[in-house]
Amino acid sequence: MAFPVFVPDELVVPPPSDHIQNNLVKHLQMKDNVFSSFEYLPIQDSFILQHLRKKKGKEVVDFIMVVTFQETEASSKDGTAMDVIKKGICYEGSCYRFLGHTDSQLSTKTCYLMHDSELAIYDYFQTFADFNAISSVSKRSEYIGNLFVGFDRHMSLKENDYFVIDDIKKGRHSFTNGCGYMNMQLATEVKQLENLQYIPSIVKIVYQGFFGTLVARTDLNFVKVEFRNSMKKFSSQNRDLLTNMTSLGILDYSRPYTNGYLGCKDVMLLVDRGIQRDYLSQLQDEYYSLLDNLCTSKSQAAYYLETSGHNDLLKLLNNEGFPSVKEKMLKLREEEMKKIRGEDLKVEAAYNNRSILRILVPKSRVVMAASDPYSLLDYGECYFNPTLSKQEERDFAEVDKVVVFRQSSYYSGDVLVLRLVRKNKDYEHLKDCIIFPTKGGNPHALECGGGDLARDKFFVTWDLNLIPKWHAAPFPYGPSTIAHLGGRIYEQGLQLRFRDRAKEYMNTMFGYPDNYAKQMKMTQRQELAQYFANYDANLISRFDSIFMKYASALGPSCKQCLHLHHAYFRSASILGKGEDLERVIANYEAEYKELLRPETKPKRCCLVNRLVKYGWLKPFFDPGDDVWNIMERRAITFVQQLEKLQEEGAGK
């Protein structure tokens, strides 16, 4: 094997004295093919870390390293990550080899390495489950990634405290995908663990081989938790592991006052569905005016504090006046500005297409979702009961519809309008979340951009001015019937069973058992390492960039955008089949250079113009209709002006 990659001596710093107690491990960043930084940073607790602690003791953190590859377009093509992962990293004489990563770390090209042999690392994972039975490398990587999911807090859940129940399905779709139940006792324990003032309605968890969300039920009495089969990513037959590793990791939970903000893509999709551009521009102007006056106007400060749920500061403002909260308001405005500038983003993409457009929608929330625990809702309905101020409650009482979508969407049909169900005592304990029905042809969570209930949160607004005027059919997310059946057969690992039977009788082809087992272990390790190293973290940025270019030129419903969206979905589908996304992107990038964009509005017959005028026909996309780009430029100007004023104020 070639020599390992060495960490430069000038970057190395000694570990802090408390690094073992505080889970501080070595963090390396590599830009292009050069190590750019080295420091000790904390890692969260996880199931793999708990297991390694039991095997090697608390000092195991000295054997772990985290590496982030900050790739440019050039370095992603020259195979820098693959070369480093294949050779390993040498630090003070110890060689660190690829260990694994979470699903989210894959998108930032970050992974864990460990000072141990390849075969030992293989055996660590096999303690949890037989991951070899998962034929698809991407699925195997995803399931192993659940062992790395970090959590700051956890509680004990013993084997007799939960059941595993079937999902509610219709055809190839599951209405409960990724969502189980918890009783009120467990919800109360989460409240105490997290020191909350309320009982959370939904909790996102990781537990042994389970991953997903739990929604509170008042009638769940015999066990604390009912997991769904869809939450089970892998099954462990290790009795010692099931008995001793009882940590229920708490990843997230439903929260009040999680105000919604519109980004560039959100504005694009809403405009495509007929939302008035003037109203969206008005929202932007009023939000910027609010930020401008947040530290000088008592009435606007009070409005912001009430809308965002800062009740303690609001009480202080009303009792002691504006000077008592001015410093706090300055900090709150700076937090808003940091989010607008995107300073909370940890890793920059090679394609600098990040938007700074961010508009507060007062009548909105970003919430977790769950399937209907009582099966009372019909298709097209939802239950939604956010925590509101008294004035907001009066406005909300008059609403009978809400607009729902995921903010990672690229297709205007992902924006749903659902009827609001109220006054049902069975749901009164469910606050600050949205409940989708388990009836109908398709799950609403799937219609909102694909994925299960535990994936992204949902933007929900009851602003009547944001209800779409034009209908758009939901995209057919999920596998086709044939692909669904084929995938089920493929994931059963029938080819693996055939291979295992064949090797019993064909030693000359497969080798003798001991050698064959060792070879297969090394092959499995290489497959996972290659999958990580070859993953193009910039591909999504490239997709976003070319999609927004065509949307700005021809509209988000043009054939090019629809084709790009379809290719994007197929590349991220369960089986990873369909069109090759990179090839499609490259073709459209080349075609865009030759794209002829009209500079003036084309002439159309008077009948078509009348149909559009009276609302019988959806308006065509014409030059200048890309209002989201106009609003983006307005956002850039606002940030520059506010920063200039802050600099002038600091200089006085």
TrEMBL record:
Keyword RNA-binding carried by entry: yes
Cell membrane in keyword set: no
Domain RDRP core: 66-566
GO molecular function, one term: RNA-directed RNA polymerase activity
EC number, UniProt record: 2.7.7.48
Keywords annotated in UniProt: Nucleotidyltransferase, RNA-binding, RNA-directed RNA polymerase, Transferase
Gene Ontology process terms (BP): siRNA processing
Catalytic activity: RNA(n) + a ribonucleoside 5'-triphosphate = RNA(n+1) + diphosphate
Pfam families, per database record: RdRP (PF05183)
GO cellular component, one term: nuclear RNA-directed RNA polymerase complex
Enzyme class: transferase
Source species, domain of life: Eukaryota
Family that this chain belongs to: Belongs to the RdRP family.
Protein name from the UniProt record: RNA-dependent RNA polymerase
Species assigned in the record: Exaiptasia diaphana
